[in-house]
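Practice problem: predict the structure.
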Amino acid sequence: MVPVVAVFTREADLRRWLGDCLFDALRSSLVSKLTDVPKRILIGRALRSDRLGETLLPKRIALPVFASDPLSSVAYAPGEVLLVLSIAGVSAYHFSPWIALAVVVLMFTVVASYRQNVHAYPSGGGDYEVATTNLGPRAGLTVASALLVDYVMTVAVSIASGIENLGSAVPFVVQHKVLCAVVVIVLLTLMNLRGVKESGKLFAIPTYVFVGGVFVMIAWGAFRGLVLGDTMHAPTADYTIKAEHQGLAGFALVFLLLRAFSSGCAALTGVEAISNGVPAFRKPKSKNAATTLAAMGLLAVTMFCGIIVLAMTTKVRMAENPATDLLHNGHPIGSGYVQNPVISQVAEAVFGKGSFLFVILAAATALVLFLAANTAYNGFPLLGAILAQDRYLPRQLHTRGDRLAFSNGIVLLAGAASLLTVIYGADSTRLIQLYIVGVFVSFTLSQTGMVRHWNRHLATEQDPAKRSHMKRSRAINTFGAFLTGLVLVVVLVTKFTHGAWVALLGMCLFYATMTAIRRHYDRVSEELTAPEEPTDDLVRPSRVHSVVLISKIHRPTLRALAYAKLMRTNTLEALTVNVDAAETKALREEWERRGIDVPLKVLDSPYREITRPVIEYVKSLRRESPRDAVSVIIPEYVVGHWYEHLLHNQSALRLKGRLLFTPGVMVTSVPYQLESSEVARNRARRRQDWSAPGSVRRGPAADHRDGRQKEAGARD
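Answer:
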């Protein structure tokens, strides 16, 4: 290494140099701290790529991370069932246990089906991978569109429901529920940007407190009712309901029950998230994911049924329009009444209003509903990364951030959910009508794909034990496909006019957008593919004609001319545009006086344009000699302050922008740094120590393509 020696002729020069270095270091350090410290406080220190394994989840953390949505949905799914049944009056409430039983059968079927998925497709593609591999790209894209919509809905519905639960105790939240909902979304976004494992630890405590609180409520309610013989009354037990359609029968009653069942199916949302998040589990990944899935299903079913039974026992009353449809002593209760969720009313009846357990459960319920959105915060970015890898979404979504999370996908989800929350006023009753359409589309196509998966493997498998296992798995997936397909039809029929059409529209928009993005990437890839046969890109140009653009003779011009001479091109000329006759004459005279040995060509511009004459001249060179390459060299000086850019006409930038679209033309910028560009130089120095976005890339999501290729090879 050759040492660099700085020679200073005067002591003052040395002092000034040392002072400038010290000032630059202090300024660079201060600016870096001002920008990095808030980021580190909010998100945390950046993690190295080799620490990705440390972010994997044990089952006890994976359960609240991936299953918080289906577990928390028991806080509002029973209420949605009673709200729909209230259309026919209190007499229709006796159907609620049968509806709960149907939801339980569906839940167990879906859980059993997805346990087959996580074993067969552990790479993290989930429903999208299953559908794409077995049913084709269009089916896979349909599933992806449905899941993306459903994840956005999950965040909006969970946050809105949590705000309403919290609003029963804090009036300020109800009065400003849209603002509060957006604030909660922002907080959840920051928590997830810190990483899956770290956010999972934060979510574990409230989730387990909620689950424990619900089980204590069910057990204590059963003990009071069956052993002590106490009579428990919900705060709405003495109310009556003014039925919109009294005495429904026949097809109308069946339609009402189907609509109530479809609302109760909200308890199944988020079940598929575990199959999408298998790579986030510790080894053995598939086994741990299947165990977590079974635990989630058992807990959700028990809590859902327990709350329904307690709601019937305590005589909870719910109405879609409580101000007019809920009657007390024969009179409407009025607009001042706030209708509390079913779980709050049951807790008040079992524990007593204001009791310690009541407060704990109420707080845990509100908090876990907020945290239920975390299921989407884990599913959406991972699915987005997989789709980006398959070129259906912008490639930036496949980039990991500082904390090894897919930060761009997290931010995109937060923005979409916030927009939806604002549009619908954070009203869970309105939002839930848009819900669960997407998830049952993915359920149905995924299970259908699994049936074809087992059929393909059974055609080649000879081992009797393995064939028996495959046949059992195929039977489970076949029943799952049939049942979820039937529920999808019910959901579409009963909810289409109530808002489900919005979810379908969102799916169509996602599908069209992703198809267009894929076409763009395919077109670019085709254009950039290196051909086997020689083309114009591979053939060496016969000559290179260099053109140096000149406006006046100054330091940048002289540097550009010196650089152009070093290129040793076949022909070299300087080019200027005559927009002012006096300035052009002065330029010619100085050119001759200096004896510059490069010919100067002047282009006339009667309309005082600069860009167009240069473009036309360059094109004329190409027309005269199509096999020649034209190198346009542009001298430009660099400023450091943003406001200095406003003081210049940016002609060099416009020229470069136009010349980029001219075939056979190469554009070279020769920068000349002014003193004010010291700011830009310091900024560049800081960036040398900064990990640019995308420097940490590619996670477990990348493995799903290999799995699909193996499946395709087996199919072929």
